[in-house]
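Problem statement: downstream parser choked on a complex file, so we are re-checking the raw output for the flavin-adenine dinucleotide run. The parser issue turned out to be on our end (a line-ending mismatch), but while we're here, posting the original submission so the record is complete.
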Amino acid sequence: MATKLKSADIVIVGLGWTGGILAKELADTGLSIVVLERGAPRDTNPDFMYPTIHDELRYAQRHQLMQDVSRETLTFRNNANETALPMRQLGSFLPGEGVGGAGVHWNGTTWRWLPWDHEPLKLTLARYGRSVIPPDMQLQDWGVSYDELESYYDKFEYLCGVSGKAGNLRGQKIEGGNAFEGPRQRELRRDAHKRARHESQPRPRQDSSRERDLYRCRRARIRAAGRARGALRLCARQRASDAALRDRQAL
Ligand SMILES: Cc1cc2nc3c(=O)[nH]c(=O)nc-3n(C[C@H](O)[C@H](O)[C@H](O)COP(=O)(O)OP(=O)(O)OC[C@H]3O[C@@H](n4cnc5c(N)ncnc54)[C@H](O)[C@@H]3O)c2cc1C
């Protein structure tokens, strides 16, 4: 028989990055929120502790952070003439499962879109004119510009400790950073690298560069450059969903 649980104002299905951030932002409004996650619960300790986290058999071969396709699978076809068949083995496509979703095993590379990526039509017209766009090319803008999103990029980067080097600070090009990026309001986090006398990686990555208290995140460790495959090196990663969950539990 179905069990009727206490009602909540909001139910979020899935606790990856999207569900985690939504849960945290909505919890701040005082609404009651329940998040349903189909996979297992996870926490920094013990799930991301050494040496367990380097268990290649468990994670790289048996894909224990990913969707179990023997229980619930996805179907796939290469073109519209084929019959879509169930995937029985994961290849390069690795959907996440459990608290944190794919954010648990992603690589943490967090490039911002360039201003041009947001508005390819508008900016192509302004720079090159209509004649460079073939008549049958369906080019359109996304409807949200880089400038409109900038403060949200910034919030995300500081929330999850993206390290790197700015290439453009408030319109001024910064040597050593990405020369093509749009203006940032502030430098990326580099302080922990400096303290540990490491070179920071110029490209933006969500590799922890310092302890963070935003979203009540836990202690983060410094990660030096020169990493192996991200999927196996999870220990220093802080996940917003994890923090959001903890916040939720604390309410
Ligand atoms: C190997 C890999 C590397 C990546 N590297 C990067 C990178 O370097 N940089 C980058 O920007 N992006 C990267 N990505 C992409 C990025 O990780 C994803 O876009 C992002 O994590 C998606 O977050 P999400 O919350 O939308 O979805 P998901 O993380 O997929 O979360 C969805 C959650 O919902 C749960 N769920 C689904 N259905 C149900 C249901 N019916 N009931 C309950 N729960 C359900 C799932 O179990 C899962 O936990 C990578 C992805 C992969 C797979």
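For whoever reads this later: Residues 13-19, 36-39, 94-98, 101-103, 105-110, 231 surround flavin-adenine dinucleotide (CB under 6 Å).
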